User: What shape does this take?
Amino acid sequence: MKNSRNCNRWILLIICLIAICVCFIVGPIVQDPNYHRFADQRSFFSIHNFSNVATNIPFIIIGLLGILQTLFKKSDILDFQLVRMNVSFFIGVLFTGIGSAYYHLNPSNETLFWDRLPMTISFMSFFSIVISEFVSTK
Assistant: This one.
């Protein structure tokens, strides 16, 4: 049993190293500049792309409410690991709203990073929650 775990760890390490090497060989993937041209570019209250910016407000609200609900909910069912995963998920949702609003205020390849980074935090936290619910928190 221990040998198979060591073997699995070595395989995972080799796959990670290959993936890192491929990232350095391939280099960055350039985003087409037309990606940043939105259908609705109207300004309102001196905020450019107002509709795109304003639609991020629910992400911010849900992120804050989710963090508060998770931290202050009195439940014997949730263990500490699951609480941390849920808080991480809602922090990701909160920062998805903030990052996406920042990107839509000034759409460019540089600000697109701040739009996508928090989403990856939310996706990975959600994946961890699903795994912990159906497999194990370890």
Notes: Helices lie at 2-26, 50-54, 57-72, 80-105, 109-134.
